[in-house]
Amino acid sequence: KNLNLFGRYLKGKMAQRKFSIFQITKMLPQKYVGRPPSAASQMALFGDEDHNVLAKINTKVWGWKTKWGYPLRHIFKRTEPSVFKKDFESQNLNTTIYNLRVTPNAMYQMDEKGSFDDYIMRTPPEDLRSNAGEKMRDLMWWYMEN
Questions:
Q1: Among residues of the chain, what percentage have pLDDT more than 70?
Q2: Residue 58 is assigned to a structural domain of this protein
Q3: Which range marks the domain in which residue 93 is found?
Q4: What is the number of structural domains in the chain?
Q5: Which has the higher per-residue pLDDT, 54 or 131?
Q6: In terms of Cα–Cα distance, which of 118, 131, 128 is closest to 47?
Q7: 5 falls within a domain
Q8: Residue 119 falls in which region: left (phi positive, over 0), alpha (psi -120 to 50) or beta
Q9: Do the Cβ atoms of 85 and 99 come closer than 8 Å?
Q10: Phi and psi for 79 in degrees, rounded to 5?
Q11: Per residue in 34-90, pLDDT tens?
Q12: Measured distance CA(51)–CA(79) in Å, rounded
């Protein structure tokens, strides 16, 4: 479909030959880096998204390296996920949860699972990464047993 992505266009784009003056590192999701979830994501449903950090390396100050062998200056920029407040109706909890903060990633995962209740019940804790989600899951299991 996208013929412009192949051939001559990608010839110079595939391999990076040198670093630019201001090199920006790629963002990795927090759970793949091994960082614990942020406090903001514990009372919301963030899915795979979380607060993240971009590192910008300034190589123009004294050249590429100092006498210790490290880049001279790092500039860190903290990025935040886009968060929406939504109301969710839960059949398992028999209530409506008002103003729950969710990210688009969590909403896409809810669509894949089928509903809000299925997302909470069937998502493993490693992927849910939310204290509020875990408490809702425990409460749903308690209602189903009793």
A1: 67
A2: no
A3: 84-145
A4: 1
A5: 131
A6: 128
A7: no
A8: alpha
A9: yes
A10: -105, 145
A11: 778 888 999 999 988 888 877 666 555 555 555 555 555 566 778 889 999 999 999
A12: 6
